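[stage:ingest] chain + small molecule (zinc ion)
[stage:ingest] validated
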Amino acid sequence: MARSDGLYDLLKRLTEAFGISGYEDEVRGVIVEELRGAADKVWVDRLGNVIAYKKGSGGGLRVLWDAHMDEIGFFVRYIDDKGFIYLSPVGGWWDPIVLGQRVRILTDSGSLVYGVVGSKPPHLLKQEEREKVVPLDRLFVDIGASSREEVEKLGIHVGSPVDLDRETIRLQGDRVTGKAMDDRAGVAAIIEAFKSLDGQEADVYLVAAVQEEVGLKGARVAAYSLSPDIGLAVDVTTANDVPGAEPKEQVARVGGGPALTVADGRASSGLITHPKLLRLLEAAAREAGIPYQLSILPGGTTDGAVIALTREGVPTATISIPTRYIHSPVEVLSLSDVEYTARLLVEATKRLTREWYEREIGSRH
Ligand code: CO
Ligand code: ZN
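[stage:predict] done
[stage:export] tokens:
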């Protein structure tokens, strides 16, 4: 229990930190602090990715672990005369999630200003309007101000970043809920795994990537600069083990262990996990007694898709943490799935030897 309490504390700190795509400073600070002392070297690249390096015992195989630190959010798009603030989405929102939320606006001085997302009151809507979802462009943030000047004086202007105000808490059993589990749960897993690495042959590069939610951007440049031999991306995946989803629509189940993605995305946008690497992950899980599931995600993809296409190609796999209500403030996952994901990373990486690589993948030309 002690171990998962530590993991919960880390996940809580990561998820509650501010860090929408492109404005990841606060969460980056938490990550750098966690990794100092656990790595041979930690640095931040020009786009803001955190990279931590741990030297292996020999062979020189370069293994990249990735999870993204950014979360979806908003920018201030417009402030009206009365001090109401309109939003532009950053990443993929489902509009009905947004109404009624409490949000935080990051000001120029770095402080957070709280507000609530309101709309025209339902009592004033016509019958046919009440039956429709209110689109994001008709929602506004009320920070309690009465004029545009009052808002601007706080250091809020067009482009100020906005996230959801949401505390992470425990539910029953080992379930937790909060915002930004996508993908701070992945970040927690790779940090946890990195700290427990011991005696592996390969050199490990941990990447906590920026700007995944707006096009897999941080991972693309990090993979280019690190030029890895193998990529292991950790992200959350849809768990539709909920009412209304048919068993045949299932992608993954919360509490069933990490989901090894066989394929995701559509056509050119996704990743087909390298079959040799998939087999190694399955063997590692079986031998270490780690439960796992195989999953196919028909839409959406992860950083793994761009890591795989770096330079002359990088055999890559995606390990996913099953998560309910993704891209909402009430994402739900199981702490043991995060823990098992961390263990699987370590077990798989132990098996990524130069000898395995040359036998299964081939040497580099
Ligand atoms: Co996402
Ligand atoms: Zn994600």
